[in-house]
Design goal:
Layout: H1 2-48, E1 58-64, E2 68-82, E3 86-90, E4 95-100, E5 107-108, E6 113-117, H2 120-156, H3 161-194, E7 196-198, E8 203-208, E9 215-216, E10 221-227, E11 232-237, E12 249-253, E13 256-269, E14 276-282, E15 293-310, E16 315-316, E17 322-327, E18 333-343, E19 347-352, E20 359-361, E21 374-378
Helix pairs in contact: 2-3
């Protein structure tokens, strides 16, 4: 009896297990059928929709790179406008200053009287010497008459040789005293001439040191005058710059360009800036004040293998490198590394791993990416 019960229990368990397996297989089969019929439905629906048209190729402007063996580099050096001549005028002799005819900022012409000293003592001494000379001339006339009479008496035998010698000596002494007086009068005339200062050249007064009435010592500065014509431009240039490259230069002042003539390059070195000083002279009048800064621009030839490209054609690459986008024979965009050697306002001189004739995207490289096929328009 117990064996029959165990057999019945075993058969019931087997029946339940078989039922579970059958139900699982039915569910899996139903799910598979649903997936199959759903996929077929979606494929049929997708096939009913027309395919979209392919997007047109991006149009880019390209040009062939032309390799060069060098470039012209423009270098600018800051300089200063200064007068060609600056003079501190003064009196050579001591005296009292009585008049200054000009003030700061006034224009002066060559030979114009600009300052004077008191000359009352000199004119008084001049009058005294002139009177003394007139007295000596009268005495000389009398001495000549005595000499003439002594010669006549000597010939007649009524006078001695000693008397004639005395007359000659008196004449010579008076003539010498007259010459001495003339020398003193000439000295007075020179001192009177030096009591007035005249402008040494056409220019302008920049500083006035005295007001008038002062007792001056010799060489004491009264005025400072600068020459306004033909100003100079003084610039410091590096030692590495060849003197020949300084000859063709352009003066830039307040944004305007002027022609400038190269004058000289000083042989010494400025101990502060460690540069050599070059002097230029504008060939035409310039609207500048002395002390104003200006630029001298010169061009030098630099030997280097590379090519010119527009600034807009560069893209920043990895680790700060610059890249160009170029087009291969299949009109596919590729990346080329570029090393910037020299930059101007709108173009740069670069070196890179691109051969002669490489086609470069000239403008708008941000519109495409490497590997993209594009439509090419030759620039």
């Amino acid at each position: 009896m117990a064996r029959f019960e165990r057999t019945g229990r075993f058969l019931r368990q087997a029946l339940r297990l078989t039922l579970r397996v059958v139900i699982t297989l039915v569910v899996i089969g139903g799910a598979g059928a649903a997936v199959f019929y759903g996929q077929s439905f979606l494929e049929a629906r997708a096939a009913a929709v027309p395919e979209p048209k392919a997007a047109p190729l991006t149009i880019v402007s390209v040009r062939e790179l032309e390799l060069r063996n060098g470039y012209r580099q423009t270098r600018a050096f800051v300089g200063q406008i200064e007068p060609q001549r600056t003079v501190a005028v003064s009196f050579e002799l001591a005296g009292k200053l009585i008049d200054i005819a000009v003030d700061e900022g006034d224009e002066v012409e060559t030979g114009q009287r600009i300052a004077s000293q008191d000359v009352d003592l000199l004119t008084a001494e001049q009058s005294q010497l002139q009177s003394s000379r007139e007295a000596l001339e009268a005495q000389l006339d009398f001495a000549l008459q005595r000499l003439e009479r002594a010669e006549s008496l000597l010939e007649s035998g009524f006078a001695s040789q000693e008397r004639l010698d005395q007359a000659v000596s008196s004449r010579d002494e008076l003539a010498a005293r007259i010459r001495e007086t003339d020398a003193r009068l000439e000295t007075i005339a020179i001192r009177l001439e030096k009591s007035t200062i005249e402008a040494p050249f056409d220019g302008r007064v920049t500083r006035r040191f005295l007001d008038g009435g002062e007792a001056l010592s010799p060489g004491q500065t009264v005025l400072e005058i600068v020459e306004t014509e033909a100003p100079l431009v003084r610039v410091g240039v590096p030692l590495s710059l060849a003197p020949e490259s300084l000859r063709d230069a352009v003066l830039v002042l307040n944004g305007e360009e002027f022609e400038a003539e190269f004058l000289t390059l000083r042989p010494d070195i400025d101990p502060t800036t460690r540069t050599r000083t070059a002097l230029y002279r504008p060939t035409s009048p310039i609207p500048a004040a002395f002390g104003q800064t200006a630029e001298i621009r010169v061009e030098t030839d630099v030997a280097a293998k590379g090519t010119w490209v527009p600034v807009a054609s560069l893209k920043e690459g990895a680790r700060g490198q610059w890249t160009l986008l170029v087009i291969n024979q299949a009109n596919v965009v590729q990346r080329a590394t570029a090393l910037v050697i020299y930059a101007e306002t709108d173009r740069v001189f670069v070196q890179g791993s691109f051969p002669e004739g490489t086609r470069m995207i000239e403008e708008g490289p941000q519109r495409v990416v490497p590997g993209q096929r594009v439509s090419v328009v030759e620039g």
